[in-house]
Please model this.
Amino acid sequence: MNLLRILKTRLVLVHVLLWVAVWFFFAYFFSYNNDNTSYILWFSSLLLPLTMGVTYFMVYFLIPRYLLTKKYWKFGLYTFYLLVFTSYEIVLLLYGCLYFLLHFDINSMPPMSKNFTFVLVLVILVVGFVSFASLFNHNLKTLSKNKELQNKILETQLQLKEQELHYLKKQIHPHFLFNTLNTIYGFALKKSEHTPEIILKLSNLLDYILYQVDKPRVSLKEEVLHIEEYIELEKIRFKDTLKVIFLSDEIDENIQVAPMLLIPFVENAFKHGNLLEGYLQIKITIKVQGNKLDFSIGNTYLNHDEEEKNGGIGLKNIRKRLELNYKDNYHLSGKVEGQWYFAELVISDLTKAKSNEKD
Model:
């Protein structure tokens, strides 16, 4: 409330100073080559209210109602009417001052004040200056509001991307957890000595998927280690019906990637893969050259049409995550070779990842 009062007080002060300056502006020009100070002061003082009225009518009525709403024809028409009215009032003012102040002694009338065109031009200059300042201020406010709106839109889009990415990262197919728990249950019933080991592997993997995934970046080496744990769990479940070929370069611990970047590929390979001649076969290759990542994974499968209908090995959500993290910096493709489906991911520069997440 106090701020509003201060702003209003400042606005009133600015207007007062403006019109005081205009009055001195009039007095200065009308006093040119004339010493009739009394007449000049009276004429400037009487011309000022007319100028104020015309200016405020232009700034607060014509410009907002017609110019800013792009009703240019009406704005031009009413501006012309305002010009005619102003001219008429100036003529009345000239004759009124000549009669009441000079008693028709036109020779004592300051030369600049009896020139109708000059007086009209002065009024138009003031109206034009104030109108230009008003439009300039309006444009500044509009630009500021537009920028603020754009910032809000960008902020909203960023929040939506963060939520989408957070959702995509946290996705884990329930069938994997369900099947693994069933495997643990079976081992527990048999009192197998491998039960604690399986529980530990599952615990480590769930810790990575549910908690470490909140980090904006993780070590690629850590991601690969969890892929190996995932495969070990699947080996226990598939027993003797799984063959996995896993080839990986020695990876520098400093190489960072988006968390859960590669594990979903592996999960989809197991989910959509089929047993051929009694075996589900998986081939995984990870190559790192500088900051470039080459990743390939293949699985055996039977129904080509179903795989194509599902987008290869179900890469829809993976592609969304790649768009959010590595837009214009990756290439993802799928291909069929005999009874194998291969997905290949190439990230040109791992250092150019876009971080849409908060630490």
Remarks:
- Residues 307-314 have pLDDT under 50 and may be disordered.
- The CA atoms of residues 264 and 318 lie 7 Å apart.
- Residues 116-170 form the longest helix (55 residues).
- DSSP finds ten helices and seven strands in the chain.
